[in-house]
Amino acid sequence: MAATETVARLCPLCEATCGLRLTLEDGRVTTVTGDADDPFSGGYLCPKGATFGALAQDPDRLRLPVVRDAHGWREVAFDEALQVVAAKLHDVVQAHGPGSVAVYLGNPNVHTAAGQLYVKPLVKALRTRHVYSASTVDQMPKHVSAGLMFGSAGSIPVPDVDRTDHLLMLGANPRMSNGSLLTAPDLPGRLDRLRARGGRLVVVDPRRTRTARRADEHVAIRPGTDALLLAAIATTLVEEDLVRLGAASEHLSGLDEVVAALAPFTPERVASTTRIEAADIRRIARELAAAERPAVYGRIGVHAQRFGTLCAWLTDVVNALVGALDAPGGVMWARPGHEVGTRPTPYTTGRWHSRVRGLPECNGELPVSTLAEEIETPGEGQIRALVTVAGNPLRSTPNADRLADAVDQLDLVVSVDPYLTATSSRADVVLPPPGPLHEPHPELAFASLSVRNVTKHSPPVLSLPEGAMHEWQILLSLAAIALGVEHGVGTSDGPPVDLEAADHVVASQVAQQVVSTPSSRLHGLEVDEAIALAGGHRGPDRLVDLLWRAGPYGAGAGEDGLSLATMLANPSGIDHGPLEPRLPGILATASGRVELAPPTILADLPRLEEAIEDAPEGLLLVGRRHLRTNNSWGQNVAALVGTRDLCTLWVHPDDAAAFGLDDGQQALVSSRVGAVTAPVEVTDAVTTGTVSLPHGFGNDEDGIRLRVAAEVGGVNSNVLTDEQDVDPLSGNAVLNGIPVTLAAAP
Ligand SMILES: Nc1nc2c(c(=O)[nH]1)N[C@H]1C(S)=C(S)[C@@H](COP(=O)(O)OP(=O)(O)OC[C@H]3O[C@@H](n4cnc5c(=O)[nH]c(N)nc54)[C@H](O)[C@@H]3O)O[C@H]1N2
Ligand SMILES: Nc1nc2c(c(=O)[nH]1)N[C@H]1C(S)=C(S)[C@@H](COP(=O)(O)OP(=O)(O)OC[C@H]3O[C@@H](n4cnc5c(=O)[nH]c(N)nc54)[C@H](O)[C@@H]3O)O[C@H]1N2
Ligand code: SF4
Ligand SMILES: [Mo]
């Protein structure tokens, strides 16, 4: 008889953090449903979550490390793979110094314990400024604006969707993405309820998306012009005397400067560039101001574009002008259970710059758009080795063909990845994590972006398979190797990696932080006393026990309150209640106030003003996401992706006619940097002058081992995106609004 059990499990597949209920038979997941006991997701589940079992048990996942030799891949034990890494890393560092090693951190790091807790020690151990991540093809503009306005890159306010009565949403499609920088399970349902209670949803998007179709109003904007729209909304509020600062008013600084700086951006001036009538812009502003609990929210369509940081900033400027900042039903800050309340030094960018193009560092990293040139360009600091952790930059970052050529020139590539992807298939060594069923999942990334204060944790569902390593152990081994490179640590003739000792160092660092921070519930303890609280736990378990104990809901050194034990006793999660106002405590600016007019940001306004007359003409390419795919690696489950062609080029009927293209015909799409061929889908769901292609496709290349995704096929849209085109303040890639031309494919 099969042994059947049911367990609660946090879904790691998007930012919504839904609770899943897994049924296992003989150690295999057979069914997945929503966890009705989850206080946050209440049983909600999307198609991706429903196929979590198939993804977690995908036969294409690597079980053991692979090492490249003259004959191709050789499967080896972890010890041997780590010895190879150690020896090769030793050679690179001996010859070129630690500054020649780069690391790229991909998106799933926000969904793993290892990514949240052990990437930092690894990056530190590598002693390099070549730190790159998916953040600079995603949300870096929001970090920069939050850092400059509120003092900390992580202090991102989220729209209080459950209480707002008017949501202005730009560049987001949560009915496909399930929300981003806005953690709210069943966000589609929450938006329906917003409207059902008489609230208004206005969606600004060049495409009539599923979210736009179920909104009160769809504003079909010209790609890349949202900063002009938002600036004109702000100016209207001022001109028409509609500003009301609300609860945040006594904490604001720079209001007069911002009003003066935005004055040139009137609705009448920006109308033709944005392709939105001035009267509509004024009406949108008035309706926002007239709402009792308004909120403005922007996501990747306004961040991964030419004016990303200006958009991110203007979103919160408008929020401040309509009294939404820190107000229930407006935009608010969550209070995560692991927040230990350290006040960092006020945020700044550009503490160093990229070697070749001089782009500013943000959050300790450099823009991934510079990675190829940093590999290609000789001189001190040239990249010779690359470590990727949970990332696939050859599918997800701009000018992917150039980057592929550059990566092929490296002396060493190490990928921590469960699959042979476009990126990891070019590696010398691939170190596979065992997959989510075998790992603990303390949720740390999204607790600060949630629309309620919640804490969630899932212990491993299954024990570690024979020969596997936990991902945190892999990262810690790499860190120990990097630190011991001069001494040959981990090499066949050097000392082995001492994981227990390395983990003790990491735990001591976290303990040091929680005992020395005044607001921590473990403040004043000795480091050893704090560590002792976590008893026999090791790895992420010990670290989260310390953090949760120390945090605002924490048990401290006692038993009542948040700790690992409490979380294990509450496998569906704990709800700490609705968001509460956090001003001024959340602020970490030098002034202790909200900086509405950071000089760095105002300095970028002349560029925006020039765009009124100089906006790109012709066709502009934007992206899109599909409910049934996940970035570049979620297309390997047949039951999920189905058989319909998902990687089509959306073209408006007028543009199709102008270029002589029919529905279903293959079109050649060309940009400054590359060209792809994709089937045309003629649809008026995209505005004239805009075409749309999803990203993450084209996984049928030689070397990639994603068998279902290979059949799905499609093309890599990042062959078209331009690595030279970045948002100057954040270095974020421009993935939307790419000038392209069309022709019938030969
Ligand atoms: N044109 C265009 N490009 C885009 C975007 C766009 O909208 N348009 N969106 C951008 C955005 S928002 C993002 S976040 C990036 C994502 O960019 P990346 O993070 O570089 O790419 P992903 O496709 O998420 O690939 C994740 C990798 O992690 C691996 N992986 C999965 N689970 C685990 C795990 O548990 N541990 C480890 N170690 N590895 C794991 C997968 O096999 C895969 O190789 O793409 C960006 N690229
Ligand atoms: N099913 C699924 N869910 C996902 C992912 C996935 O791949 N699949 N990826 C996850 C990740 S990593 C992220 S970051 C989130 C992203 O979450 P969202 O930001 O909600 O992502 P998208 O669905 O790409 O929506 C972006 C929208 O911006 C629009 N847009 C493009 N250019 C412009 C512009 O210039 N102005 C305006 N106003 N709009 C524009 C696009 O048409 C698109 O509808 O989704 C996450 N969730
Ligand atoms: S919405 Fe996101 S977290 Fe929820 S089930 Fe779907 S993929 Fe998982
Ligand atoms: Mo993302």
Low-confidence stretches: none
Number of helices: 28
Average pLDDT number: 97
Instruction: Report, as a whole number of angstroms, the end-to-end distance.
Output: 59 Å
**Overall geometry:** globular
Q: Total number of β-strand segments?
A: 28
Q: Main β-sheet: number of strands, strand sense, barrel status?
A: 7 strands, mixed
The assigned structural class equals alpha/beta
Helix content: 25-40%
What molecules are bound to this protein?
A: ligand MGD, iron/sulfur cluster, molybdenum atom
β-sheet strand percentage? 15-25%
Sheet with most strands: strand arrangement? 5-4-17-16-15-6-7
Q: What's the alpha carbon Rg, rounded to whole Å? A: 25 Å
Topology of this protein?
Elements: E1 4-10, E2 19-25, E3 28-34, H1 47-50, H2 52-56, E4 66-69, E5 72-75, H3 78-96, E6 101-105, H4 113-117, H5 119-126, E7 131-133, H6 140-150, E8 158-159, E9 166-170, H7 174-177, H8 187-196, E10 200-204, H9 210-213, E11 217-219, H10 226-239, E12 252-253, H11 255-262, H12 267-274, H13 278-290, E13 294-298, H14 300-303, H15 308-321, E14 331-332, H16 371-376, E15 385-389, H17 393-396, H18 400-408, E16 412-416, E17 429-431, E18 441-442, E19 452-455, E20 457-458, H19 471-483, H20 499-516, H21 527-533, H22 539-550, H23 564-569, E21 574-578, E22 594-595, H24 599-602, H25 605-614, E23 619-622, H26 638-641, E24 649-651, H27 653-658, E25 666-670, E26 675-682, E27 690-692, H28 707-712, E28 738-744
